[in-house]
Task: structure prediction
Amino acid sequence: MEEKKKIMLAHGGGGRLMADLINRTIVPKFGEGQSVQLTDSAVLDMPAGKLCFTTDSFVVKPLFFNGGDIGKLAVCGTVNDLAVAGAKPVALSLSLILEEGLELEVLERILESIGRTAKNANVPIVTGDTKVVEKGSADSIFINTSGVGVRLDKADPSFARIEPGDAILINGTLGEHGMTIMSQREGLKFQTPLASDCACLHDLTGILYEELGSSVKFMRDPTRGGIAATLNEIAQSARVAVELQEACLPMDKTVQTAADMLGFDLLNIANEGKVLAVVAREDADKALTLWKNHPLGQKAAIIGTITEAADGPLVELVTKIGGRRMVQTPYGRELPRIC
Result:
């Protein structure tokens, strides 16, 4: 049996082997039209206006999961951080930290996914970096992506603009990414397979900003810590209270079953294709309709309201039977290595 080719320390040494890795393996996977500049920095022709800049690192385990992989996750995560800030993503950078012994076939699958996701999102990868570390110093592959975007003219998201009466929307069901990762780790199988919601959301967020303008007060993608962490951040930063309606929360039955089996609260579980939006009450229904007409928002719902913080900033869940419970920020990591 032919031995599979693997990453060696020499691939990160700055010599011919590294040049071959970059030129023959990495860059070609970004697809036709992806303009990767093999210089120390990229030169971008940016339109006038406010720029948004973000960076993120990805260390998910397993590397491949139903609905995505670490490569797709890296592109979507950075695109989404720009999108919720009201920006149109313009360009991404890609940095790879490779562990000695990583199979080249695995690397190529990840790179193909990165190229495909970036191309579908119409956001080019324009520069990057590659490092190789000794076996045992990393876990196969770590990825860092940074992104630059141009703020949309009608976008002005800010904690300061949130006020009592505003509605809270989400574009779909909760916890799919986190529970997909966890079910694969635990070897759980269901009649309806779990799949990550990993997706680029800039078209979805752009619709709301362009159509509703100043009525959109704030957006955030509820990744680590789920909507519990995001809503508590909103409450604390805007000095308001949040009232969630349990009956309105969109839940997938299979995801809920998995969470119940493993003892998790879906409010705390990570999402990678969801966005929370705080919208002026008078435009909430219009926002909901706009999202429901988009493929990534067909299960969108109005899930709560911003209220006065009479007893201080807090998040409360009104249960289906009319009771109330506080929703707190998760103390630590609910699930390890989910993004």
User: Anything to note?
Assistant: The helical segments are 16-26, 70-84, 104-121, 176-186, 202-212, 226-238, 253-262, 284-292. The longest strand covers residues 87-99. Residues 11 and 18 are 4 Å apart (CA to CA).
